[in-house]
Amino acid sequence: MAAHTVHTSQGSYAPHAAYGCTEPHEHYAPYVPHEGGAAPAPPARQVIARRVNRALHPVNARLDEHLPTDHKLSKVYRVGAGLTGLLLVVFGILGLVDRIGFFDTGGDTVLALNTNGALSVLSICIGGLLFAGMLVGGTFASTLNIVLGVLFIASGFVNLALLDTGLNFLAFRIQNVLFSFVVGVMLMWFGMYGRVGSALPHDNPYWRARHPEEAAREQRARGRVLPAGARSS
């Protein structure tokens, strides 16, 4: 294949072998990028760093950074944590008032649930933790509800396996197992509300955190839209 010489103001250049030239030459043709071509791929190190950062911080958003503290999402998280915490604290206090043995499995009931001193104290501690989540609100309350919800469901399965064994130190009965499942599902629903889903609104802080580039474009587009009063003037 014959070399094609490119004439410029600085002299003549023969194309390089990478452009299809197989004959020896002394000069390389300068590379001229074509308009409309594909954008160069980012370096592998940059891609890996971006993926690692996204894996470590799947949702880098706090409600108090994006929305008012009284936003409806924060209210849902607070209400869920507060109501569940109140229920657990009342259950635990009633168990302690009845002076049930700490590891007693004799069948003492409170609010139709079997209990003992250990379960009462544990219920009060978890209820207090949920009250703390209610006071903090925002993403902390959401995450706390989800984590405790998962733990309640896991506790239901574990204690279901221990019902008729000597390791049933919390005096669980089948009604306690069902209660643990119900509370776990309820806490997870409160925690995931407005945070998990495929159809989140674009003003949702979690959606903006997962799609920062698209959120930035929409923000710039909204900034270019003139208010109605400015158009009419």
Quick synopsis:
With 233 residues, the protein is mainly α. It has nine helices and four strands.
Structural account:
- By secondary structure, this protein is mainly alpha-helical.
- Helix content is 56%, strand content 4%.
- It contains nine helices and four strands.
- The strands form two sheets. The protein has a two-stranded antiparallel ribbon.
- α3 (72-97) runs antiparallel to α4.
- Residues 58-62 have low confidence and may be disordered.
Descriptors:
233 residues, mainly alpha, two-stranded antiparallel ribbon, two-stranded antiparallel sheet, 4 strands, 56% helix
Low-confidence stretches: 58-62
Shape: elongated
SSE pattern, N- to C-terminal = EEHHHEEHHHHHH
- Gyration radius, to the nearest Å? 32 Å
Q: Report the β-strand fraction as a percent range.
A: under 5%
What would you call the structural class? mainly alpha
Q: What is the percent of helical residues?
A: 55-70%
Strand order of the largest sheet: 1-2
Average residue-wise pLDDT: 75
- Taking the alpha carbons of the first and last residues, their distance comes to 68 Å
Number of helices: 9
Q: How many β-strand stretches?
A: 4
The biggest beta sheet reads:
2 strands, antiparallel
Task: Give the topology, please.
Elements: E1 6-8, E2 11-13, H1 44-56, H2 63-66, H3 72-97, E3 109-110, E4 113-114, H4 117-136, H5 138-161, H6 174-192, H7 205-210, H8 212-224, H9 228-232
Antiparallel strand pairs: 1-2, 3-4
Helix pairs in contact: 3-4, 3-5, 3-6, 4-5, 5-6
